[in-house]
Design goal:
alpha/beta, 7 strands, 213 residues, 7 helices, seven-stranded mixed β-sheet
């Protein structure tokens, strides 16, 4: 399989604002993060670790986490977060495309990252190849909304939102892309994390589990 070409990630503005956003996440988002990691075990790959927000939520049944964060400023903060949690976590400045695949993973975790990769289909195919048969993809992602909010997302994606916020594209049909990469979605649900009247394009999230057959 031809792998997607990884590119250098350098987002100084996003690297300044994301730590503030991540440390002030709404309670519903923090609860969804915990649920996304519940019951994991074995060897886990986390893609787009940011500042390591997920790290304290990994259960003791996880033997090892390989966390990739290609933005070097965020990676440094993730390494500091990894040093103070009980689960062994190795943080590297790689993209998903650059992860070595000698030993398959039992699970892959994606949290608010598939909206920002340049080639989501290619990345998901790569993640599929890194999982053992029967391995899980755990995802918590921004998704395309319907109606007025969806129109607002398309406007945001076509203007400044991706440029300012680390290439985040809010109007992606992420679950369809997951299925097209070969995964079988076993369970998923959508939640609004802001009031319905709030115009933010990232207020709707999908939490799901998919499996490599």
């Amino acid at each position: 399989m031809k792998q997607p070409v990884a590119s250098k990630v350098d987002n100084p503005f996003f690297a300044r604002i994301w730590p503030i956003v991540a440390t002030h996440e709404a309670g519903p988002i923090r609860a969804m993060r915990r649920e996304n990691l519940a019951g994991l075990s074995g060897r886990v790959l986390e893609v787009g670790a940011g500042i390591g927000t997920n790290f304290p939520n990994y259960p003791d049944s996880v033997q090892q986490v390989v966390a990739v964060e290609p933005e070097p400023r965020l990676m440094a903060q993730a390494q500091a977060a990894a040093a103070v949690v009980p689960v062994p976590i190795t943080v590297t400045c790689e993209t998903a495309e650059g992860v070595a695949g000698e030993e398959p993973f039992d699970a892959v975790v994606c949290s608010l990252v598939l909206c920002s990769v340049r080639d989501p289909a290619g990345v998901l195919r790569r993640l599929y190849s890194l999982l053992r048969p029967g391995g899980e993809l755990r995802y918590l992602e921004h998704v395309a909304s319907a109606g007025f909010r969806g129109r607002f997302q398309r406007l945001a994606d076509a203007t400044l939102w991706p440029r300012l916020l680390g290439n985040c594209h809010t109007h992606r049909d992420t679950e369809r892309t997951i299925r097209e990469a070969g995964f079988e979605v076993e369970v998923s649900r959508r939640e609004m994390t802001l009031p319905v009247w709030a115009p933010m394009p990232v207020s709707e999230l999908v939490l799901g589990r998919a499996r490599r057959p």
